[in-house]
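pipeline/complex-builder :: batch 7 item 3
reading input block
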Amino acid sequence: MRVQEARMGLKEKLKREKLFILSLFLGFFLVVFVAITLGNLFYKQAEDFSGLIAAATDPVVLKSIGISISMALVSTLIAFFFGVPLAYFLARKDFIGKSIIEGIVDVPLMIPHVVAGIALYGVFMRYGMIGAPLRKLGIVITDAYPGIVIAMLFMSLPYLVDTAREGFKKVDPRLENVARSLGASHWRTFREITFPLAFPSILSGAILSWGRAISEFSAVLILAYHPISAPILIYEKFTSFGLAASRPISVLLISICLVIFIMLRVLQRRSK
Amino acid sequence: MIEVRDLYKDWKEFALKDINLAIERGEYFVILGPTGAGKTLLLETIAGFYIPDRGEVWIEGDDVTILPPERRRVGFIYQDYSLFPHLNVEQNIKFGLKLKKSSTPDTNRKSVKEIMDWLSISHLANRYPATLSGGEQQKVAIARAVAIEPSILLLDEPLSALDLRTKDYLREELKRVKEEFGITMVHVTHDQTEALVLADRIAVMMKGRIMQVGTPHEIFNKPLNEELADFVGIENVLRGVVRNNVKGIAEIEVDTGGTIFAVSEYPAEAVKVLIRPEDIILSESRGVSSARNVMIGRITELQDIGPLTRVKMDIGRSELVALITKQSRESLRLRKGDEVCATFKATSVHVVR
């Protein structure tokens, strides 16, 4: 193999790999686009290291990042609890109006986030369809933690449902049939066969959904400006004090998320 | 004992129509049919994966039509083995045991280890399905199914994905399973050799219907109609009219000219005459033969298939196909255009309406 490769001249090698080289060349632009943008952010921040330290020790900043990450986690858990059953049902059953339901689930992917925020506000504000009865029970949604979670959930649920659905579809129904014939009930078959086999996809969907929730800005802005979450704090600093004030928080948020997501991806690869 | 009564089921592009079957306890029953006949759907409906649109399924004297699959004690084996990829061999085999309520004291039950030894797969216990060959995977699937001691084993094309040698070997293993555990086997296949070798009885299924049920001999030699004859490889079909019938020997005037004698009860009427190609003997001249039927034909085609030669002859207004050994082809020095004598016994002729 190696010997044969060595015999080939560079020109021949390039000729054989033409399409790959073209693909790499074009794809490279995208990588550079992202890398330059983020790299510049980090590079500029490195010049102002004390600013970064100041941000990292500022309780307001830390609290906002904590809110973003933990509320996104709550939103993902809720999406998981309701979304996994929905994904399982959509993957296994055909029925009239199925594409309507799938369409509804995917709507948040298509509409501007501000629009979603306004729509959510209309329903969950204190006089809204759901907001009013909840307020009677003493639960306030807008400008409170539940508001953040609801805005995040709305924007991120398609990622979990769609990915989990594809994961369930990949599990051969014949495996479930065999499990049933071996005496396992429908529920045990789901628990011991279907769910474990679809789990890598579900986890992948959960990671995407969580990431999307952390980064949600517009919808959260409208539904719950306070308690202040990281993207909103960053925006506030940017409009009031400019780039230099907002950048360290951005760098901090990106760094923390990057570490978490890399860890999750490693975990996911192991579970496969 | 399995009984299927007046069963109908529509599922996607498949349909089962008016299925009636009675499969005896301890029987090796093969459902034979071309691809798309609905064989798998029938098997899956017996297993309880689908509820029939109409009709009933009875197992061991109980109506199980709407009983969920986990309560039927029916083992199921698919063509692609369907092992659980996230469990190792031993965990796969134990899957059903873990779930089975062991309230009934089964002193005779074979342990997982015994079953694995018996199928010689013990050395694979800790391996995962993806690392096994097709034959090994199918043995694990068999072990997993028999571990729960089912009264019935349903097999959906269990050997079709395997190479020839493994296929032969596993065929013997399946026979062994039936003998050792006394399980009723219902085996679906499109492979006629498989059906012939394994079956106590065969049901031929076409387009969602059971066309004929019988012993392998009946299925392959006495098909009920021309379509079935064609399916089991009886290539020679001649049209004729029964002119006379003396003591069960029918004298049939065929439309190619001449008369054929056949063992048949048919009285005077229009019939079709079926002859298997391998039942036809070729010779250079009429000679002396105990066979009552002789036809003269001109060779139009010679085709070698393995150790055999397929000889196509023009017998005037129709053609006749014979299957002879390469050796007899050489000793007869057959060539295209030669005139030959085709003889066959009256007992080799099957008559249908």
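note: Chain A touches chain B at residues 172, 174-175, 177-186, 188, 192-193, 196-197 (CB under 8 Å).
queue -> next item
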